[in-house]
Design goal:
six-stranded mixed β-sheet; four-stranded antiparallel β-sheet; Acetylcholine Binding Protein, Chain: A; elongated; 12 strands
């Protein structure tokens, strides 16, 4: 109608409706942009997005809980040497140098000592069984010049009743005989002694004189004092030397060895086997006249040596001495393995291993005399103690790298190298030392 004003829809703000529509559109657009930015920010903040799945009911989807990864339990990234930092490479090189230098020098020193002792044992056997021919020829000339009587002597060893390394003695039961021509006044059976021997029993079981051919047979049971070589115990070799020495000087009587001397075929002793046997005649030259006014020079006597070399028949005593040490070393290696691959601090488990080492040492020491030389028994025990200490140091270093430097991947890498290097020396050392000591 004319004269009437058109109705204007102000929509609460007093402005025309068309203007409100434009403003509303702008506001909606800004609100949508703001929501989009918030949604994007929310996606960046959340490490794991919740997943949804169809639950089969009314076509709706049910959201599942987000899977979170514990950074402590997350698997460490596998490292390679080329990926290590400079300080990490330095630490690896340093620990390898220390282990190889210390372990290598120790094994070289101990193994060479054991090999040298084994060679010395064989040389000593040759020295006693094969006396100096020039010296013996000189004494033989004196004997013949003095008109001395030659007496053939021989032995037959029936039994080795006892070998006591701790008490430094061995006991032998056997026969000894004497044969000579002429000189009816000679009585070798009652005029001889065993050097360093204590006669437990002696009996002349046969004595003959047939036309000037004399024969005496004596059964004896003697305990001989012997300072055994213990450097390679409990895989050692011993020489049992039985010296039958005449009380007559060589100017009156001298010994000639009888080729019929022997030992019982089935002769044995617990823990040992006889690997060598021999006899020989030697001349013992003393340096004193013992105050005898009838002597113008020190006396020289003839002696008959019966020698046996015995060797450990098995490794049973060795295992008995070191079984506790094997257990303690295994325990330490287990703790090092756990610390490396399971991220557990097992340092408190190691001190108990030291008690096993001490117990192990006492077992071996109880089988030896109080005054003993350092040898295989101590070498292996010292090596075991060093292994335990090395294992403890390894656990401490791994924990420090993991906790102080927070380098978990490198801690596992370092621990694995340390573990296998130490394992190499444990196996190598405990094989080399007994092999160098044992006489095969």
């Amino acid at each position: 109608m004319e004269g009437e004003h058109p109705i204007i829809d102000t929509r609460d703000d007093g402005r025309p409706s068309s203007e409100n529509k434009n403003d509303n559109a702008t506001e909606k657009k800004e609100t949508a942009n703001s929501d989009a930015k918030k949604s994007a920010a929310s996606k960046q903040e959340e490490p794991v997005k919740a997943s949804s799945r169809d639950d089969g009911k009314n076509g709706t989807k049910k959201e599942t809980a987000p899977k979170r990864v514990d950074p402590v339990k997350a698997p460490a990234k596998k490292l390679h040497y080329k990926d290590l930092e400079k300080w990490q490479k330095t630490r690896i090189i340093r620990v390898l140098a220390i282990l190889f230098l210390a372990g290598g020098l120790y094994l070289i020193a101990t193994c060479s000592t054991l090999l040298s002792d084994k060679e010395t044992t064989q040389n000593a056997w040759d020295h006693y069984i094969n006396p100096d021919s020039a010296t013996e020829a000189k004494y033989l000339a004196q004997e013949k010049q003095a008109g001395s009587t030659a007496v053939t002597v021989g032995t037959y060893i029936e039994n080795l009743k006892e070998i006591s390394i701790k008490n430094c003695s061995f006991e032998v039961v056997g026969l000894i005989w004497f044969k000579w021509n002429g000189d009816d006044a000679l009585d070798p059976a009652n005029n001889f002694r065993f050097y360093k021997g204590t006669m437990k029993s002696m009996e002349v079981i046969k004595e003959e004189n047939t036309g000037g051919a004399h024969y005496q047979l004596v059964r004896f049971d003697v305990s001989v004092t012997r300072n055994f070589w213990n450097r390679r115990f409990p895989l050692e070799t011993h020489q049992l030397n039985l010296y039958a020495e005449s009380n007559y000087p060589i100017t009156r009587m001298y010994f000639v060895g009888d080729k019929d001397s022997s030992i019982y075929d089935n002769l044995s002793v617990a823990g040992y086997e006889i690997i060598n046997y021999g006899t020989t005649v030697r001349t013992q030259q003393y340096t004193s006249t013992n105050g005898d006014p009838q002597l113008t020079q020190p006396i020289a006597t003839s002696e008959y040596l019966t020698a046996m070399m015995i060797n450990r028949s098995s490794w049973g005593t060795y295992l008995k001495c070191f079984i506790a040490l094997v257990g303690t070393i295994t325990w330490v290696m287990i703790t090092l393995f756990i610390c490396t691959y399971h991220r557990v601090d097992p340092l408190s488990m190691i001190p108990a291993a030291l008690f096993g080492t001490v117990t192990n040492l006492m077992v071996g020491a109880s089988l030896l005399p109080d005054a003993m030389e350092i040898g295989l028994l101590e070498y292996v025990n010292f090596y075991g103690i060093a292994t335990i200490l090395a294992g403890a140091i390894g656990v401490i270093n791994i924990n420090r790298i993991r906790n102080h430097y927070e380098a978990r991947a490198f801690a596992s890498y370092y621990g694995s190298i340390y573990f296998f290097t130490l394992l190499f020396f444990v196996v190598t050392g405990n094989i080399l030392m007994p092999i160098c000591a044992y006489m095969f």
